[in-house]
Amino acid sequence: MTMQRTFSILKPDATERNLTGKINAVFESNGLRIVAQKRIRMSRLQAGAFYGVHKERPFYQELVEYMVSGPVVVQVLEGENAVQKHRDIMGATNPANAAPGTIRKEFAESIERNSVHGSDSLENAETEIRFFFSGTEIVG
Length: 140
Ligand code: CMP
What we know:
Elements: E1 3-10, H1 12-16, H2 20-29, E2 33-40, H3 44-50, H4 60-67, E3 72-80, H5 82-90, H6 103-107, E4 116-118, H7 122-132
Antiparallel strand pairs: 1-3, 1-4, 2-3
The chain binds adenosine-3',5'-cyclic-monophosphate.
């Protein structure tokens, strides 16, 4: 177990339904600390680049349009084993497969409108954090 930082996004379906506080409470009660956070409107360029790894997937264009459709909250979360812990708390990408008690089971509307994004590895967490935050914006 090591102290880690991971990257998180509260997606447009979550901000639209005013769920920011409820989802953050789940992170905090599970030992994740919000060490950086900002509410932004992503540009198409940003969303396209952020999800560039999915460029060849059939859902890519729709995913980009969805991510720019409303405000999102980008976050850096810190804690023991934060990358895996955050993924466990989020649950499976498709809410239909998400375990009871997970954020996606509780709040997500569909595989696209799945309320939260989380980094899938420590390496990607570092890249994704750097994509949205400068060092001085992260206060541990
Ligand atoms: P996220 O964890 O943000 O990473 C990529 C996103 O693509 C994922 O959550 C889903 O919201 C979305 N996604 C993955 N698979 C599909 C799919 N089959 N159809 C639509 N969106 C998808």
